[in-house]
Amino acid sequence: MLLLAIIQLLVISAVSAIYDVTRYGADRTGRVPCTDAIARAIKDAEIHGGGLIHFPSGRYLTGPIELKSNMVMDVGTGTIITFLDDPALYPPLDVTLPDGQRRSVPFTPLIRAWGQKNVGIRGNKVIFDGRGEIWWDRLPPPATRPIFVNFFDCHNVVLKGFTIKSSPMFNVNILHSSGIVIDGVRIRNPESYHGRGPNTDGINLVSVRKVHITGVDVATGDDCVVFNAWGYLKERVPTEDVLIENSYMSVGHGAISIGSVTAGGLRNITVRNCVIDGTTRGLDIKTNRQRGGTIENINYYNITMNRVRWEGIALIDLFNDNDPSWKPIGDQTPFIRNIRFDNIRGSCDRNPILVQGLPEAPIENIEISNTDIRSPQPIRLENSRNIVINGRRY
Ligand SMILES: *[C@@H]1O[C@H](CO)[C@@H](O)[C@H](O)[C@H]1NC(C)=O
Ligand SMILES: *[C@@H]1O[C@H](CO)[C@@H](O)[C@H](O)[C@H]1NC(C)=O
Which stretch is the leader sequence (predicted)? Predict the structure, then answer.
């Protein structure tokens, strides 16, 4: 599945022209802003059908960057790109894309591609610095701030080999897109900023298909990796066909989370060979009676979790809802079923396994094998059906 995106990227690298931003006037010492020079290089590439937007190794200072189809932002080894923090550079956007999809955000993202295909960012030991501290002080939560890397309605996306540091808001946020590879991306934000989380989700994906995440390393102030699926009334856009592997989550709320935006439904997600160190929750699926959707065919294999602060494994239908009484099944009733965990090991401080379904929609068909999560607390199962843990049926 992912081959497609990688092949496209190779094709772009092999056959396309190189648009060197310094030839369009970008300063590579990091002293002079080069927003306009980068935009000129991108415009020229766009007119000629795409290519590599090449940043020779150095330092750059810029405002927002918008990528187009058949284009790879190709950043030289060791480069640091710092994003200017003047809010006037990031005005609100409200756009209708060629396929009719509407997108509006309160701030222009730092790097974006909307409604494009075959588009990527690649580097080696590259740092993107969002100067988040200034934004967090200026607009503390619950205010919103600009998203760092934002792809919407895109097909064939490759993100490879860069570190995002100090993101104003979400770090990587991809919505309504397919054919996505995220490889060797590192994310570094403080765990807590003046005692508050600055909404810095590491990798936040919404209604995406055919996704491969490998070798990512996330330490941040909100969920490390989170899969959502948007839906409203009859329009529901699922997240499906996802693999995340060989990754490391060291600081954050949920290490690998599904939900709480679930109305579009999420299915066929595999998580394997990952290490979790000291996050708040380990592997969690969370939703509630306002969120809806079906979450099914989710597989977790070979996960080590060390010193998770709350639950190791948590499947929760009462996220931000304290009413465990029976309610009639409706449009927004969530269903969680067919979830498998094999070889999950480590320790946590609260319930090693928490399954909290609804009386009208129990969580069902959960198989947990070869699993040993040490904890001072017991396993807790509520409103669940057909749960098998290490060979014993509950
Ligand atoms: C999901 O997995 C099931 C069972 O393995 C398979 O039949 C189905 O085609 C998959 N669907 C998608 C969208 O990947
Ligand atoms: C889990 O780890 C074992 C031992 O390293 C390996 O043989 C197996 O293929 C892994 N499972 C998956 C699904 O990757």
Answer: 1-17
The answer to pTM > 0.90 is yes
Ligand 2, atom 8, residue with closest C-alpha: 302
CA of 88 to the centre of ligand 1 (A): 46
- 163-184 CB burial, b ≥16 within 10 A, e <16: bbbbbbbbbbbbbbbbbbbbbb
Instruction: List ligand 1's pocket residues with C-beta within 6 A.
Output: 240-241, 267-268, 297
The Å distance, Cα 346 to ligand 2 centre, comes to 17
> Whose Cα sits closest to atom 12 in ligand 1?
241
Residue 324: partners with Cβ closer than 8 Å, 6 or more residues away = 318, 358, 359, 382, 383
Domain of 202?
2-16+65-393
| Ligand 1 center to 296 CA (angstroms) | 10
Could you tell me if residue 24 is inside a domain? Answer: no
Residue 37, in any domain of the structure: no
Tell the residue number behind the tokens 């690298």, with chain if given. 13
Per-residue pLDDT tens over the stretch 34-93: 999 999 999 999 999 999 999 999 999 999 999 999 999 999 999 999 999 999 999 999
> How many structural domains does the chain have?
1
Instruction: Give the position, in ligand 1's atom list, of the atom nearest the Cα of 267.
Output: 1
> What CATH number should be reported for the domain holding residue 385?
2.160.20.10
Residue 41 lies in a domain: no
Point out the residues that are catalytic: 253
User: Does residue 340 lie in a domain region?
Assistant: yes
